[in-house]
Every structure is written in C-alpha cells, then in structure tokens.
Fold these 2 entries.
Entry 1:
Amino acid sequence: MSKLDRAVIAKLARAAHAGLISVAGAAEALSLSRREAALKLATLARAGWLLRARQGLYLVLPLEADPGKPIIAEDPWVLAQEVFSPCYIGGWSAAEHWELTEQLFRSTLVVTAASVRTRSLRLLGYEFYLFRVPRSRITGVVPVWRGAERVLVSDRERTLVDGLRHPELCGGIRHLAEILREYGQSRDRSLEKLITVAREAGNGAVWKRLGYLAELLWPDADALRTEAKNHLTMGYVKLDPDVRGRGRLVRRWRLWINVPVSRVAEAA
C-alpha cells in the first residue's frame, strides 16, 4: 500500500462509526465530492482494504487484518443503525438489553422504517431480523452507548407494547409473558408509564392481550386492568396471531386463548 493510500485509510478509519464509513462520511473526511468519494471507496474495496457492507456503506479493515479470517463488524447494533436507519433496536434484543429475559437470540431485532424487502438478513457476520413500520412509529426510544457510538433502543415499556401488538417481536406470546413477568418483578416497573405508552402506541389487540396477561401475571394491577377494559374494542383477536387455531374464548377480554401461558384457571 502506498503512503497516500495509508493516509486515506487512516482518515477513513478516524471518520468511521465502529469501523463503518458511508459515501457521505468519506466525502467529508477526504474533502471530495460524493461521486469522487464513491469512486475512491470502490477502488479501495477492490484492492481489499475495505469491505462493502451494502451500497454506499463500507467496513474499514484494520491494516493488520488476517486475510484468512472472516471479517465482521465491531457491533451489530451500530451496523444496524448505519444500514437500516431510521430504525431502533427492539423486541427480544431490547428485552435482553433491559435484562427482562435470559434467553439469547442469534439475531438482532431491528424495527425499521427503511425500505427493506426481507425479514431476515445476514450482514458482515451478524444476523438481523427486520420488522418494517411507518416512520411515524419510530418513537418511544432512548439512546444507549455502544462503545463510542450511540444507538437507539426501545425503552422497557415500548418494548412490551411492541410485543403485545406483534408477539413475534418478542419470540411469541409465551416468551412475551415471561418478559412481562420479569418486568412486573423489576424495581424499574412503572405501570403508569406502560399505560401511557399503550395509549400512544397500542391498539385494540394490545389492550386485550395486556388485560388478559396482567390478570394472570400481576394480580395487584387493578388500575391497569381497569384501563385495559376501558379501551376494549369490538371483535375478537388471538392471543398469539402467528399460531394456528383459535383455542378457547375468554369473552371478558374478547380474546381467543390459542397458546397456554399460565396454569392459573379462569372462567370464560
């Protein structure tokens, strides 16, 4: 590598986010136009000094990188933010972050408003599960530090409401019930905030599932159950929409219990 190329790589590495550099970032770091920066990045990638993550985004490889070893990005959360923005880390990945579950998932769950065409994707050594939402639903998030980078993650209550709306985001309703049980025992539990977030980001199905699960898991949560009853909508939904079969009907919550989540007996 020439001294000039070494200097260019050094500038790109300093401007990179966890090793990732975009065309726009390279243009600013190298004082080039976007077209010139794109051509420079492509040239360095062909020479083996960068690894193309996707169109317009590259991983800057360490100069001492072993060519025989697979290349992975430093952090899947930072990679997700660079590739799928606007987005946030949610579902089971957020639940792991907030210590609401001990179950480990191989993929990082990303809630994104980007134009993605697949649910699952492997990129730079990491697996991602993508759930697309309108841009208006990229809310209820907080920034967390991942090394020197800040990444958006759904807060505890938004994670729960997302899971109640789409149980698949938390690995299904049974795992969501375990997350809710852990949340109920946490010193950070705030049912008042959970009610507020459910009002803002929930729908009829959220209140039906929340009311039913709160009845089973949080017998002291009278105010929450009352709030859920006040927001019941017409029609019936499945406890887990991704499981075939209706199961039995619990009329007071207008809910088909098609997955067992508790041994507590209740009258329909």
Note: The radius of gyration is 23 Å.
Entry 2:
Amino acid sequence: MNAMFSLRTAVALSGLLVALPAYAQTGAPSGAPPAAPAAAAQPATSGVTPPPGYVIGPDDVLDVIFWKDEQSSSKDVPVRPDGKVSLTVLNEMHAAGLTPEQFRAEVIKEAGKYFTDPTVSVNIKAINSRRVYITGQVTKPNAYALGQPLTVSQLIAMAGGLQEYTKGKGILIVRTNADGNTTSFKFNYDEFRRAKNLKQDIQLMPGDRIIVP
C-alpha cells in the first residue's frame, strides 16, 4: 500500500513539474484574456515644417513614402521648373501649386491603380521655391529661401547687415501682387535701430525684393 501510494505521488509530482514550464512561458492560465495587440506602426516623417498657406513650388524637394514599401517610395525628389516630379512606379505627376495634403491625395488616387489601399506620406525636405531677394549695400546680397516667417530686419541680418557708412534710410521693399501690379514699402533702418516706427518692419512675402541704396 505504501509503495503504491509513493509511486502514485511521484507520478503526480512529475506531471506537475512538466506542466510548470508551460505555465511559466504563457505567464497566465489558458483561460486568461489575451494581451492587447501592439499599436500599428505609422509611416515615418521627416523634413521641414511648411509655413501656413504653403503650396509646393519649383525647386522644392519632396519625399513620397509608401508605408512598408521602400522600392515604391521616392526620396529627395526635386520639383522641376514645369511643376512636375518623377516618382517610382507612378512616373510623372504634377505637384506645383498644390498643398502637401492635396498632392498626397493625388498620389493615393494614382497609386490606387497599382496597389490596394496604399498608405502614403508626403514630406517636404526643402523649400526652395519661396525666395526673397536683397540687393545693394549689404554684406551678402543674394536670394534667400523663405522657409519660415521673415521680416525686413531679419533678412538684412541674414545678409550680413548693412555695409559700412550705410545708414539705410531709403530701403525699399518691392512686391509683385497676384494681379501683377507692384506695391512698394519704405523701410528706415536707422529709425528701426532706435526703436522708432517698428511697424515698418513688415513680414516678407515670396518674391519680395529689398533694395538697399
């Protein structure tokens, strides 16, 4: 009797020891609710943050990313002077004059001919289409990218400041409006440095030309 009891006890204990590793691996009884699934990954984003009202223009650089499909994605794509871009699989598409979201919608629409429910992101890598120009008596007269809000005084600083002996009383901002007409604004840098008439330090628009006599 005692021998039989000991044998049965040993068998039962060995079965329990065999079951313990399986329990340890699951971490919970089989009747426990399953763990919540991990959140789905989203397409990675990179690049610059476009200013309000931004539309894609010539010389801008884009990334068109297809989620989990590197071969169909297109990176560092320049917008040509004709406003088009060359994309992998989709070939040529018109981008200039569209917001990034509008262009993304066009890419998804075109990609729908080849893929089922494509997930696409359009990232702006560089904004080169929005430029302002400064000429005359500054250290570095040139065209400057308008990738973020910029005032007249800030552009003068970017251009290295006024040349020696230049007071900047007669600085002129020339702007071509959407209707083709030209508007001009005056900026007295000498007054601005003395904290007078600060309202004249207007925010620049793409295409503005600043002339420093």
Note: The longest helix spans residues 2-26.
